[in-house]
Design goal:
Blueprint lengths: L5 H16 L8 H27 L6 E5 L9 H7 L3 H10 L4 H7 L9 H15 L4 E6 L7 E5 L2 E5 L4 H4 L3 E3 L5 E5 L2 E7 L2 E7 L2 E13 L6 E11 L5 H5 L3 H12 L12 H30 L5 H4 E6 L6 H12 L4 H11 E4 L10 E3 H7 L1 H21 L4 H7 L2 E2 L2 E3 H7 L3 E4 L2 H9 L3 H6 L4 E3 L6 H7 L2 H10 L21 H26 L8 E6 L8 H17 L8 E6 L7 H18 L2 H4 L2 E6 L4 H10 L2 E4 L11 H7 L3 E4 L5 H8 L5 E2 L4 H10 L3 H7 L1 H12 L7 H8 L11 H19 L2 H13 L6 H13 L6
Parallel strand pairs: 1-2, 1-11, 2-10, 11-12, 12-16, 16-17, 18-19, 18-21, 19-20, 21-22, 22-23
Antiparallel strand pairs: 3-4, 5-9, 6-9, 7-8, 9-10, 13-15, 14-15
Length: 807
């Protein structure tokens, strides 16, 4: 941005320091200079947004509204400066004022607005929609504490409040002019008058939704996206009389109860209160957002009759599925639409992305609980279901079983995935395999009933963040070898493939990788006290801790290496550093046991100098975007080892790929498309296919056979009960052999172990040949362009949203 040079940036920072704190730059402390810098960048974005919206008002481009319960945006300062092409300008301005910009970057917390892949994907999509000049808006909740801050104490995960707003709130612009009321509970009274049904609420609970806008910068473009975050407040006025009479608790009760709605992301739902809070959060999000959308539309057009031609609403998994009945409610109860007209509008504008093939992960709500909390929405869903089941009866007369499976309400449960499918005009999976499995298994009946509704959009990542910003030396090397066209046209990365056999490029890649390893090794030492060998192979598995992700399979491999070295410390094993990171859900106790096992193995290795010269294990607590920006560029091997058919897509695999790591993985999720892109010789695939997994389960899977027939595996499993770092993990041994919930080894770690070990050893052998390894690395980087969010968004815009860029 030409109007912002070093001199103007310095003046802007000085003005903020003077205006907000009454001080000079020389008098400012760390926090004050950080706030001043953030506010100047926010001002730039605000100016751009005003210009963008002024131009947008003259056009009739379809607007894209993206609903997600989480947006894992990561720190914004560095990302915004990168996208505004002002990194050097701010670096030099701050240097002139006596400050190091890296220190300022380090002060910013990761916003607590997301958990893992779902939220990170939503943020990648916002970056891409903005950069490509789509009129786009995200909606979520302004969580006060986010998920939780993870602390590992003696191997135990401790959940602490994540108070990200302390320094993160400066990016948020309060919009008190856009508040809305969200209604819960009460008794519904239907008042028919002149053929119209007036809906009245008796004794409802009302919550005020207060919006805070976070501005999303696109890379070197005119657009500024808006992520609107809703905070909950009481509609009741503060009771001064009660307060003055000393009844302090009752005076503030309404305020405290209301704020609970936006307090924490994903409250534990293993009790009724938690379930009720989650349901309330989901409705709060969709109701406030839809009221905002309709008001904006009316302000521009004066009518909602053209709504279905002017907007799209995309729901990221089932958490925002209540937007379907809520939009029906608003159109009918508030704006006078009839049922058919409202339903036609809803099913034209809404589309749905599914993110799981695990039946137990599909949301369901107890109908009794639902009807008490959301009585009007319950009435509308019942009518949607009645009409849908009538259609099914005509299509499948007397087929009660099929109709029951497809029904939105059945057996006292409201099925949110079913509601999402029925109320959307398009439903997509997030990888080719995932979409195929959906159509053959959990959504088979729907696919047969309305085949044109189902499609695929393979996930993608914000390559400008995960390559250009996180790994600038690699980005610069690619630009020197080809051009910088890949920044906005990621599929032009394929031009880098011309250098797959160039030894000088291999040498530069190796040098860059080592420099990134040194950065990560420093981070590991600061966080854990463990000193790792920067020249070792960095083997990394970072993702949510879950059985199907199979961190346990990785551990069995590591334990088998440990056993080999304990038997023969001189064994020919190339030095390796195994890095784990990820959070376990607070109520997922088995996942917490997996973390404890990783920690215990790490501690045990530290006690044996001869072993730790060859292998090290580290668990990095509180994994987030900031940590990921150090991990991905430093990784040699990417562990993508979920059981085939269980991972919907995964995006971590793409971040590793674009940073030159090679994948050891199963034929699951996006791994299949990565293999097709790079060729079988440039990725390390092992294990059962999804169809083989199904066949084995049908015929009866017996993990004990694999345990019995493989001594290396048997010794590794036996060691769990014997103990690590003085702690017995008998429960995990039982999990593999005698079963949890009647099935032993439900994610077939033992069945895939032998193939995994053989494939991993092949990767290690290849690593020894530098030119061969980095030739494969070049091929992976060059083919990573397809896996960018830019391509994903183009697919959505063309095939699902039918939206066009602003030119």
């Amino acid at each position: 941005m030409e109007q912002f040079n070093v001199s103007t940036v310095k003046d802007n920072i000085k003005t903020k320091l003077s205006g907000y704190f009454g001080i000079t730059a020389a008098e400012a402390n760390d926090t004050q200079i950080y706030e001043a810098v953030v506010l100047t960048v926010r001002d730039i974005l605000s100016l751009k947004r005003t210009q963008w919206h002024t131009n947008l008002k003259k056009l009739n481009n379809k607007k894209i509204y993206y609903f997600s319960m989480e947006f894992l945006v990561g720190p914004s300062l560095k990302n915004n400066l990168h996208n505004l092409c002002l990194m050097e300008t701010y670096k030099n301005a701050l240097k002139d004022l006596g400050w190091d910009i890296e220190k300022i970057y380090a002060m910013e917390p990761d916003p607590g607005l997301g958990n893992g892949g779902l939220g990170r994907l939503a943020s990648c999509f916002m970056d891409s929609m903005t950069t490509q000049n789509y009129p786009s808006y995200g909606f979520s909740i302004c969580y006060e504490y986010g998920l939780f801050k993870q602390k590992i104490v003696d191997g135990n995960q401790i959940e602490l409040p994540d108070d990200w707003l302390d320094k993160g709130e400066y990016w948020l612009i309060p919009r008190n002019d856009k508040c809305y009321t969200v209604t819960f509970g009460g008794k519904i009274i239907e008042n028919w008058n002149n053929g119209k049904n007036e809906i009245l609420y008796e004794n409802p609970d009302e919550i005020k939704a207060v919006p805070y806008d976070m501005l999303i910068s696109g890379y070197n473009c005119d657009n500024v996206g808006t992520l609107r975050l809703w905070s909950a407040e009481s509609c009741q006025k503060f009771d001064m009389d009660l307060f003055c009479r000393g009844n302090y608790e009752k005076a503030v009760k309404d305020s405290v109860d209301a704020k609970t709605l936006s307090r924490v992301l994903y409250p534990s739902d293993n009790h009724t209160e938690g379930k009720l809070l989650r349901l309330s959060q989901q409705y709060f999000l969709v109701s406030a957002s839809l009221q905002s959308i309709l008001d904006d539309h009316l302000q521009k057009f004066g009518t909602l009759d053209n709504l279905k031609n002017q907007i799209v609403i995309h729901i990221n998994d089932t958490h925002p599925a209540l937007c379907i009945p809520e939009l029906m409610r608003l159109l009918m109860d508030i704006h006078g639409f009839g049922w058919e007209k409202a339903w036609d509008t809803v099913t034209t504008v809404v589309s749905y992305t599914n993110h799981t093939v695990l039946p137990e992960a599909l949301e369901e709500w107890d109908e009794g609980l639902f009807s008490l909390r959301l009585p009007r929405i319950h009435m509308i869903i019942k009518e949607i279901n009645r009409r849908f089941c009538e259609d099914l009866w005509r299509a499948y007369p007397e087929n009660w079983e099929k109709i029951s499976q497809m029904s939105i309400i059945a057996y006292g449960k409201i099925r949110m995935a079913n509601l999402s499918i029925v109320g959307s005009h398009k439903v997509n999976g997030v990888s080719k395999l995932h979409s195929e499995i959906l159509g053959k298994t959990i959504f088979k009946n729907y696919k047969n009933y309305s085949p044109d509704k189902f499609t695929n959009v393979t996930n993608g990542i914000a390559h400008r963040r995960w390559l250009c910003m996180a790994n600038p030396k690699l980005s610069n090397l690619i630009a020197e070898c080809t051009s910088d066209d890949f920044i906005t046209n990621p599929e032009s990365l394929i031009e880098f493939k011309k250098f797959e056999n160039d030894s000088s490029v291999h040498d530069q890649l190796k040098k860059i990788k080592l420099e990134n390893k040194i950065i990560l090794a420093k981070e590991i030492k600061e966080r854990t006290g463990i000193i790792v060998d920067e020249n070792s192979v960095f083997d990394v598995q970072v993702k949510r801790i879950h059985e199907y992700k199979r961190q346990l399979l990785n551990l069995l491999k590591i334990i088998s290496m440990y056993n080999t070295l304990k038997e023969n410390p001189q064994a020919d094993i190339i030095p390796q550093t195994f890095v784990f990171a990820g959070k376990a859900a607070p109520s997922y106790y088995f996942a917490k046991d997996i973390i404890k096992l990783i920690w215990a193995v790490s501690q045990d290795i530290q006690k044996h100098p001869a072993i730790r010269e060859k292998i090290q294990v580290v668990f990095l607590e509180d994994y987030n975007v900031s940590l990921g920006e150090k991990i991905f560029p430093a990784s040699d091997i990417s562990e993508q080892i979920s059981l085939a058919g269980k991972e919907a897509s995964g995006t971590g695999c793409m971040k590793f790929m674009i940073n030159g790591a090679l994948t050891v993985g199963t034929l699951d999720g996006a791994n299949i498309e990565m293999r097709d892109a790079v060729g079988e010789e440039n990725i390390y695939i092992f294990g059962l296919t999804s169809s083989e997994v199904s066949d084995i389960w049908l015929n009866g899977y017996n993990s004990f056979i694999y345990y019995q027939n493989n001594r290396t595996l048997r010794d590794a499993v036996n060691s769990l009960a014997e103990g690590w770092n003085g702690i017995s993990f008998k429960s995990i041994e039982n999990y593999f052999l005698s079963g949890k919930n009647k099935f032993a080894d439900p994610y077939m770690c033992l069945a895939d172990f032998d193939s995994y070990i053989g494939t991993y050893q092949k990767a290690l052998e290849n690593y020894k040949n530098t030119d061969n390894w980095y030739r494969k690395s070049v091929i992976n980087i060059a083919n990573a362009g397809f896996f960018s969010a830019d391509r994903s968004i183009s697919d959505y815009a063309e095939n699902i949203w039918h939206a066009k860029k602003v030119k």
